[in-house]
Amino acid sequence: VLQPGAIAHVEMGKPTLKVGGNAKGAKRRKNAGVGVDFKRVKAKVGKKLKKAQNETDASFKSATINLPSQTVAQDKDGVAVNNQNLTLHELLVQSGHYSE
């Protein structure tokens, strides 16, 4: 006959009787500190979510630069150019190796 709040437990073929409490509660008390670092924060209604600690800020800023003296806009009157409108100096710069 079991008493109220008693738990029947069978271990290695021998029936035993525990009185008061449950087996899961004992484990819960023993491991109370496990997982504290990863406790989930519950969301509140109407509140904005906080940013994650490992969130990456991917924003960037840009600015325009004016280069008034580009070779495209230069006058090449009186200078020998090829059919692509490049001078001898510009062609030599293009033909050189990057490591030299």
TrEMBL record:
One of its GO terms (cellular component) is nucleus. This is Uncharacterized protein.
